[in-house]
Design brief:
Order of helices and strands: EHEHEEHEHEEHEHEHEH
Structural class: alpha/beta
Number of strands: 10
Helix content: 25-40%
Length: 261
């Protein structure tokens, strides 16, 4: 794992946007895996700025989102399709036909999951997958004790995830209890991983993901197996890491071609 610690979430998101921008510039037909939620919002704002002010071109990229709630149509203001449209897609020159989000209202949910895997494969696989990290260590909606080799499937959300996400839907009762999500095996197939985790609430999950044992109790720990996984943290989320100073040292000694800034 490459662990990058920045002073605050703002700096972390800008760094993440630079990494994604480099991928898009180096490969204009890149396939990006995208995430939703509060964590990547500032990163998406920076990508929009790079498009508007520096001409970052998204016209030929393809995107696949990690997940979607079961039962929410794309027009629902809490669906992830709606989130992506409002917070990124409508602000850049992306071909909407090349953007993919699982359909949580599909008549055959199981076939929708299998079809999503086929679409990723047909696109040539994901070049960079953006991730957040749940307080219980989940990535996508892969909750603790799930398979570390899972593919896109229907997941039952944990009580912790329901509580964490319920504020945006107004109440715990309004929260969908199921979601379609890329599996951990699907995520690990991406050629590159970029994970953002900020704030004191993520301390324990970050510590278990980066320095804990590889274990299904912390799904994010599966990223230890990936050959090119970059973790961007802020000082708060990194506070529990035993080797934080080591990660800072490694970052400071990089060769010019290894740097992002």
């Amino acid at each position: 794992m490459e662990v990058l610690i920045r002073e605050h979430a703002e700096a972390g998101c800008i760094l993440g946007a630079k990494i994604i921008a480099r991928v898009v510039r180096d490969k204009p037909t890149a396939v990006l895996g995208l995430a939703t939620g509060r964590t990547p919002l500032r990163l998406y704002q920076e990508l929009i700025r790079l498009h508007r002010d520096e001409g970052l071109d998204f016209s030929r990229i393809t995107t696949f989102n990690l997940d979607e709630y079961v039962g929410l149509p794309a027009t629902h203001d809490q669906s992830y399709r709606y989130f992506m449209r409002e917070n990124l897609f409508q602000h850049i020159n992306i071909d909407q036909g090349r953007t993919h989000v699982p359909d949580g209202t599909a008549a055959d949910i199981h076939e929708e999951c299998r079809s999503y895997e086929r679409k990723i494969e047909a696109a040539g696989g994901i070049d960079l997958q953006l991730l957040g990290l749940g307080r219980n260590g989940h990535i996508g909606f892969n909750e603790p004790t799930g398979s570390l080799r899972s593919r896109t499937w229907v997941k039952i959300l944990s009580e912790q995830t329901l509580r964490d996400n319920s504020a945006v839907l107004g109440s715990l009762a309004a929260m969908p209890k199921h979601a379609l999500t890329m599996g951990i095996g699907t995520i690990l197939d991406a050629r590159r991983i970029l994970l953002l985790a900020f704030g004191p609430a993520k301390v324990r999950a970050v510590e278990r993901m980066v320095e804990g044992p590889l274990a299904a109790i912390c799904p994010g720990s599966a990223l230890q197996l990936h050959p090119r996984a970059t973790m961007i943290l802020d000082e708060n989320s990194a506070a529990g890491l035993q080797y934080a100073d080591h990660y800072r040292w490694i970052d400071s000694q990089k060769l010019p071609w290894q740097r992002y800034e």
